[in-house]
């Protein structure tokens, strides 16, 4: 492969045998090189090919501005996540994660430690992603000697949550807002029934899965159809306490997020709440 663009001494752009643009990385790979020079295969440590145009441009910017070690750590963590999560991840993770890791390392070295107020909720709502976050901080400590606690693991987990979302235009701030809405809804359910959730139960898993997508709809302003009014009335009579709880949730999202719940939305949420509420309350 020949160099088509030099980003820094360690990163260059080329084209593979299929003519696709690739980013190649390696210590000293482009040192004293010129456009058109052949790339020494023995110096190539990683080759990246991104399919999303927007992510590709941002990736080039990140790759040229942060240490090679941070890029390679992020790639190692992403590889581990793909293997263990078994979910499709947006190419945006190759931009957001190395940028975040590099920034976190810099702040830690400067003695700036950020707390994560949603740490416990992230751990509860996204256990698999939180586990990846814990693996990530272990990798960072192994390679740099810099120690991070669970707050950083939770921050990293949100990057993977965001990369799993269907709407890849959302920022990590979007994933954070999704978690906030889930937290607020769970607080209303807990306050209504005075219960501790059985996080190992299938009903709880289904409830949380529904909440993730409900929160995304609230933030994007998209709605289910509004054609289940009759069935909603049946559910309201069968599960009055769960329905009353849903109404409280509806008031909250309308007041705070200007989102009006349709009959379909109320129907599905009431059904999920009914499954997790105490039997005595039904």
UniProtKB/TrEMBL annotation:
Domain PRD: 65-170, 173-282
GO biological process, one term: regulation of DNA-templated transcription
Family matches, as PROSITE patterns: PRD_2
Keyword Repeat: yes
Alphabetical UniProt keywords: Repeat
Listed Pfam families: CAT_RBD, PRD
Superkingdom of the source species: Bacteria
GO MF: RNA binding
Keyword Repeat among record annotations: yes
PANTHER family xrefs: CRYPTIC BETA-GLUCOSIDE BGL OPERON ANTITERMINATOR (PTHR30185)
Descriptive protein name: Transcription antiterminator LicT
